Write a sequence for this structure.
């Protein structure tokens, strides 16, 4: 809205406000919508694919997923303050 101090007509003022804040003044108070996406690392997908294809055993898949989890936890610890 402009910083001009005059006496505009009420309709002109409301039109100007509607242009500046189309969803109204309450929209400025609503929190933004945030979404978190969960994605499996490509390594985990490959381990599961190998398990389902029968190229690795259940025990090998469990061990590989455990190693991957440990490696990912360490890399996250480095990134977090």
């Amino acid at each position: 809205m402009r910083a001009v101090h005059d006496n505009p007509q009420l309709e002109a003022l409301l039109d100007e406000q509607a242009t500046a804040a189309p969803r109204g003044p309450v929209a400025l108070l609503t929190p933004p919508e945030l979404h978190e996406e969960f994605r499996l690392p490509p390594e985990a997908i490959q381990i599961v694919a190998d398990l389902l294809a029968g190229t690795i055993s259940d025990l090998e898949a469990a061990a590989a997923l455990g190693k991957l989890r440990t490696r990912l936890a360490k890399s996250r610890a480095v990134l977090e303050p």
Summary: The radius of gyration is 28 Å.
